[in-house]
Amino acid sequence: MVALAGAAVQAATITDVCTADYVVASLPANGSILGLTIDPSSVTAAPILNYSTGISFIDICDVNFAYSHDGRDDQVLLNYWMPAPADFHNRYSSTGGEGWNITSLNSSLPGGVEYGAVTGTTDGGFGGFNVTSNEAWLLANGNVNWETIYMFGYQGIYELGVLGKQLTRNFYNMSDETRLYSYYQGCSEGGREGWSQAQRYGDELDGVLVGAPGMRFSFQQIQHLWSPFAEYELGYYPPYCELEQIVNLTQAGCDGLDGKVDGVVARTDLCKLHFNLSTTIGQPYSCAAAAEIPNFMPALPAQNGTITAEGVAVAEKILNGARDDQGRRIYMSYQPTAPFQDAVTAYNETTGEYGPFLVLQSAQWVELGLNLLLNDSALANFDGVTGNTFRNWIATGWQRYQDSLETTWPDLTPFQESGAKVLHYHGESDPQVPPASSVRYYESVRSIMHPSKSYNDSVDALNDFYRFFLIPGAAHCGANPLQPNAPYPQMLFPTLIDWVENGIEPHTLNGTVTSTGEQQQICPWPLRPFWINNGSTLDCQYDQKSLDTWKYDLDAFRMPIF
Ligand SMILES: *[C@@H]1O[C@H](CO)[C@@H](O)[C@H](O)[C@H]1NC(C)=O
Ligand SMILES: *[C@@H]1O[C@H](CO)[C@@H](O)[C@H](O)[C@H]1NC(C)=O
Ligand SMILES: *[C@@H]1O[C@H](CO)[C@@H](O)[C@H](O)[C@H]1NC(C)=O
Ligand SMILES: *[C@@H]1O[C@H](CO)[C@@H](O)[C@H](O)[C@H]1NC(C)=O
Ligand SMILES: *[C@@H]1O[C@H](CO)[C@@H](O)[C@H](O)[C@H]1NC(C)=O
Ligand SMILES: *[C@@H]1O[C@H](CO)[C@@H](O)[C@H](O)[C@H]1NC(C)=O
Ligand SMILES: *[C@@H]1O[C@H](CO)[C@@H](O)[C@H](O)[C@H]1NC(C)=O
Ligand SMILES: *[C@@H]1O[C@H](CO)[C@@H](O)[C@H](O)[C@H]1NC(C)=O
Ligand SMILES: *[C@@H]1O[C@H](CO)[C@@H](O)[C@H](O)[C@H]1NC(C)=O
Ligand SMILES: *[C@@H]1O[C@H](CO)[C@@H](O)[C@H](O)[C@H]1NC(C)=O
Ligand SMILES: *[C@@H]1O[C@H](CO)[C@@H](O)[C@H](O)[C@H]1NC(C)=O
Ligand SMILES: *[C@@H]1O[C@H](CO)[C@@H](O)[C@H](O)[C@H]1NC(C)=O
Ligand SMILES: [Ca+2]
């Protein structure tokens, strides 16, 4: 290229523009969203030079400011990382959180900035970036802080995006005619937050990347309690090592069902159809002692023994999913090969026996979200609880948070009509959010948007803007240490960008095998992976019998569940 001698304005450097004064002059107008007032005195701007993302070194302008909702005495904090002007590629991206969090702090920001996107996160107005939604859920016992719930549900991420896009336009002097591509990326609770935007604000976005979304919020919280309840009902608390060995033997028993013995169970559906957990009874197990993971796993001593019929009965009851007292289905469960994390038991040094342990977030949900009690109270045990209690817990949460946290609106017409694209992925061995819950939402969108088309025609129609991928062997929002030979897609955001900006359709996803770095393709739903030619070629196949195993009749409820 020939230099445009003299004609071009000298491009601003990051140190020219990364000042509080420049950001104050670049702030969105107060009217960008009706009812919001931005506080210019809250602005900070600081350059972060030569930051290593692990992939590249980038220069960032770290911008913070606050706004309030008129008529409320609140304060919402925003943090945007802005690329150096020379590295800015006309992109904006919002990000979300995990668990009870609306934010992953700055950890999710580099993944946008390295693709030339201004990338932002919000504290939701809960009282600071390190305050989680559960700490702001109630005003007092019995009184929900609805502002927290709606901000967490969808409003906070919406405001983050609208203000972030306006800041971006002003900061980089973008003309009204220049297109600013708008994205969202997040996994788990962050995946739910992404769907909350695609479902409500279709025309605000060009591309959405969502992983393992906890989108059926009240179902998802209660589903975590089904595993410890299975132990309570069956009166058997297996040492965690026994359950770990059931997982390992399931993995070994199902490995070859996908056409290739490689340590990867790419077909948990075939595993479900063909593997009988009873075959593991009597097999030995042994594990070293393990340290506590706070709120998640208790400290465990060294364990050994042989797998019992009682242990297998617990595993089967978990995989069968939650049922009411009449045996009607309440929800779906994890796939075989998913670690039984929710079922971890606690060791009592005094008695030398194993007993119940409840995953904190879900035990808290019952007291905080349903019983509306403050002070970190958590469900202590299952005394008096039956299958019907599970159904009623879900119904209470579903009704109470129907228009805030339940995130399954299945009509994406405005999103599609605006030309936006969504890439949705879910690890097939996810031990925290059942992959079948993502399948259910995909199928809901398909059947609601295309009720009169044939199955294949409706999938083709969805491919225009919505593609869903089950990632073989993968865990929750990441690769699975138990299946290191499985492929994991490392380049999801650039794949989405290519689809949105260059029309390059992701027919498959590129996965990188964790152990070897080899590239493997990942099949798009509803096609399922199968290795042919002695395991040398991956074939993405249509298999009705397998697909049927992913679909559930939640007949404990009379309402449609999308
Ligand atoms: C928004 O309103 C506040 C309060 O009136 C004012 O301090 C601030 O300058 C306004 N911001 C802009 C960008 O106009
Ligand atoms: C950025 O940091 C890396 C590693 O410390 C160093 O090798 C490189 O020279 C630095 N680049 C600049 C422009 O300072
Ligand atoms: C990211 O946030 C953490 C606190 O969560 C902070 O310690 C760290 O300095 C921040 N990194 C940068 C580059 O600002
Ligand atoms: C949520 O945020 C809190 C406070 O920053 C942090 O301690 C916790 O690890 C986060 N939880 C998850 C699941 O990210
Ligand atoms: C939260 O962060 C603020 C600074 O932003 C700090 O003063 C406060 O101690 C932190 N609180 C917790 C619980 O970490
Ligand atoms: C935007 O324009 C102003 C005024 O011309 C200039 O001072 C500033 O450096 C420009 N910003 C960028 C990012 O180029
Ligand atoms: C299960 O397999 C993993 C290796 O994939 C191993 O680290 C672990 O110890 C095994 N668990 C049991 C109970 O044998
Ligand atoms: C699994 O095997 C056991 C013992 O042979 C048998 O009782 C049970 O019916 C089998 N389960 C299935 C689903 O076939
Ligand atoms: C198995 O565990 C018991 C205690 O439960 C212990 O006495 C025994 O030494 C262990 N055996 C092995 C082979 O680790
Ligand atoms: C262990 O068991 C003893 C005897 O039943 C009981 O008193 C104690 O509370 C238990 N400890 C824990 C941590 O549950
Ligand atoms: C929560 O605990 C604090 C300190 O223990 C106590 O002062 C407060 O009254 C409790 N609040 C409720 C609503 O029980
Ligand atoms: C997948 O990887 C191959 C080889 O590295 C590359 O040519 C191709 O563009 C990638 N496709 C996508 C969708 O990223
Ligand atoms: Ca295999």
TrEMBL record:
Q: Give UniProt keywords alphabetically.
A: Calcium, Disulfide bond, Hydrolase, Metal-binding, Serine esterase, Signal
Q: What EC number(s) are associated with this protein in UniProt?
A: 3.1.1.-
A Pfam family it matches: Tannase
Q: What is this protein called?
A: Carboxylic ester hydrolase
The Swiss-Prot or TrEMBL record describes its family as follows: Belongs to the tannase family.
PANTHER family, A to Z: CARBOXYLIC ESTER HYDROLASE, FERULOYL ESTERASE B-RELATED
Name the enzyme group at the top EC level.
hydrolase
